[in-house]
Amino acid sequence: MGQGEAPMDAPSVAQELNGAGLRGVKLSCRNVWKLFGANADRKFDAADLTNLTAAELGARGQMAAVRDVTIDVREGEIFVLMGLSGSGKSTLLRCLSRLIEPSAGAVMFEGQNLLDANPAQLIDIRRHKMGMVFQHFALLPHLTVIDNVAFPLSLQKVGKSERQRRAREVLELVGLKGKELSFPRQLSGGQQQRVGIARSLAANPELWFLDEPFSALDPLIRREMQAELQRLQSVLKKTIVFVTHDFDEAIRLADRIAIMKDGAVVQLGTPEDLVLNPATDYVAEFTGDVDRAKVVSAARIMRPRSGGAVAGEVNARDKIVDIAPRVIGAGQAFVVRDGSRVVGEITPQSVLDILLERGTRR
Amino acid sequence: MSTDAATAPLERRSPWPLIWLGFLVAVVAIWLLRDPLIWLVKYPDKLEINLAKWIGIAAKWLVAHIQFLTRGLAAVLDMPLDTAIAVLAKGILAPNDAVIVPRVSWLGVIGAMTLTGYAYGGLRTAATVFLCFTYIAFFGQWNGAMLTLASVIVCVPIAVALGLGFGILAFRHPRLATWVVQPSLDLMQTMPSFAYLVPVLLLFGSGPVPALVATVIFASPPMVRATVLALRSVPEEVMDFGKMAGCSPQQKTWRIMIPSSRALLMVGVNQVIMMTLNMVIIASMIGAGGLGYDVLLALRQGDIGRGAVAGLAIVAIAISLDRISQAAAEHQARPFKSGDTFAHRHPYLIAGIGWLAVTTLISLFVPEFSDVPKSLTLTLGDSLNEIVKWININFFDLIEAIRTWLLLNVMNPVKQGLLMAPWIAILGGLVLAGYQLGGRRLALLVALLVAFILIAGQWEKAMISVYLCAISAVIAALIGIPIGAWASRSDWGNRVATIAVDTLQTLPTFVYLIPVVMLFRVGDVTAMIAIVSFAVTPAIRYTAHGLRNVSPQVVEAARAMGSTPRQILWRVQVPLALPEIMLGINQVILLSLSMLVITALVGTRDLGQEVYIALTKADPGRGIVAGLCVAFLGIVLDRLAAAGAKRARERLGLLDINAQH
Q1: B 306-335 → A contacts, CB under 8 A
Q2: What is the pLDDT of residue A311?
Q3: Nearest to A152 among B246, B332, B338 (CB)
Q4: How many Å apart are CA A23 and CA A227, to the nearest integer?
């Protein structure tokens, strides 16, 4: 329970604004389990596992690192798996990329079950369609920066001049121009991770896995890299699965977040959904400290147009923190616009409620 | 339930003191009843099996059937070896001994080696290498040294390739690793180096190629271990990256794992080089020629001075190759600029080859470039002989007194004790210890291996080996542990000890014999001193390392409680470092055994001598049986010590430090 599309009482407009439902599903996993312990190498039927509690599994000498997870990752979104250590988020990521063989379930990538792919097909998919960035960078110490970046291309037997050209291109994209001939050990942590990012982009993948990419960096560098990722994504529009244990990072980057605990997804939704409607006390513990005005958008708290007097208009995507001075200063409702369409209105009272954190539910 | 579990260990005392007491009583009883129970004291001859004969027959059969194969292999190996010897030592000669192509000039070799040292390790390494090779040139050892170097140059790549191949195999198939590769490695490394020579001699005949084969077999095991270790050390994430980048299994091995674990692999290469050098010298007994042969000849003729000079030349080569390969392991490539030509990227390589070519070309016209001019060489041998003579004349009484005292008061009593002790007592004691330290499996292993020695009829010689080895190991530990403790307590001491230990470990086993024979002549005391000086290094190294690695917080806590430095050492550091010290002693025992066989050259009466005799008589059965006995002794002692160290570690809750074994 608890995972899946998590039907929210939020208006569908907000979801629509986030692009949900509009874009195709790129990667989805259905009832994926990963068991460790006795017989863990065997394949199980997800249906047989569904009703087993952790204690019952324990009695069989097993432990579920991933429990019955079903999620859809949509084309072009940043999908964040968030959880504390031991919650199974990294294991799930590795199941999605099939670095770990799931014990049960299916992983559908572009309509094909990844778990049915034979080794040759898998190599082909990984070479051309997937990229991955690692927590500790996983750079090859014996290669220069440019050779590291060109490495995936050289595996595909791309010609030398072509792969050098491509590597230079992505290095420039991540702001490492001029460092091509350095060795990884000569770079700072942030620069090394930029190399890792460049390398994962070299083969121009469609699906991009980022496994806690910024966790090993200092807080300041981490902020910088998060901004960098947002900038890259605005240009590249990849489908991203991003793993983190940092809720602030999740909120900042995610289109949608899945919060995991004990191997299962506790709640799945947009940052706004989570902040405004935490499904469990566990989720509420993360959202409690978040400044809601920075997360919630105008569309989220608007009401249908009443026809009363308005003092101006705001964009549906504007965050409350940005429009609050104008709305409260004017003391009157504002029209909410999405492009050319008027979608509702927003009152000073509702803005104040958010600012003062009044009421957990709207 | 929980209270039971908590109090039980306190109430139930360990049964082992009682068991050992019972064992002791039984032994005394057997001793008192030794006349009726003589078969328990002296192993009955009737129960011995003449394994040597059967193995000999089997070996002869094998040889007859696979000789075509071995001879073919020999012919293949002959080519690179001949080439290396021609290039370095002899040149290409016409049938009438006229030189067609000269060997490389000695000045060229010195320059090229120095340059190699500089390229990898900078000025210090270059200076060391330069001094070493200059010594070789000016003390008349050039020809022998080049023969030795030629064998090394051919052996090392073969041994590294073999080791790498088996290492990768063992890494990819863990089951194969535990059941086949690991035991074979253990056996190969505890088997005395001489024992390899016997079957090789049989299969390949004698000469430089058989020596090469024996050397390769002897020198590859450390590379296998290093490879497995290196591949296992590749971070999980890097392996995942390889998969995600779409590597095929071959690409993963050769483009990710091998290059990214290069530093650890180079440590293996360094070990291979040192083992090769060590074995090349021993292999001179079956015709490898070179410096080893010079030393052997000098030892046989009693010309200690000449032996010492040749021995020092071996040391010089060993130190040079060791420093260069260690520097290469730590060396990190410079980035190239994209427009760089080959010459830009490899300036030292070009310069080295150029220098070799130029000097060799000149040597065609200037003989001084070809051979080290006689007028420049110094002879050290005679003056060394004079010094030895002087020492022997002036200190004969003192040395003789030490020798006699050691023999009468230490060595002979232990020897007699071991020889008279009932075999059943020794077997039982070892098995019991195995059961206490490592459970049923270890006890069974110990029983089987010791029984082999009994059945093979090697008990008496084995006991002599044990006596020499035990005394030497105890003395080495008594010397090494305090030095290690001292080294752990001061930075200065640590530096001195590190240099000393490093140098001692570079020396080939053979070399240790020379100075001892100079002073003590042949015999058990000489053997013992040589073994001690060879085996003392791990005691120093492990003790220093173990004491230094005791958690500083624990030491601070002890100091905060008001402990004196002495109390900190004895009540905190030593107990916590004990597992590692035990591993050091374990290494001491293994090194003692491997040196023991070498000391057969100076006339001991143990298993080593048995192997040596088999070698001179080309008797494969005898040699293999005696060699196996030494190996089994080594494995028994090694396993017991390792199990003891593991138990101690578990009791202290320390992490598995995953040392050598």
Answers
A1: 332-333, 335
A2: 86
A3: B246
A4: 24
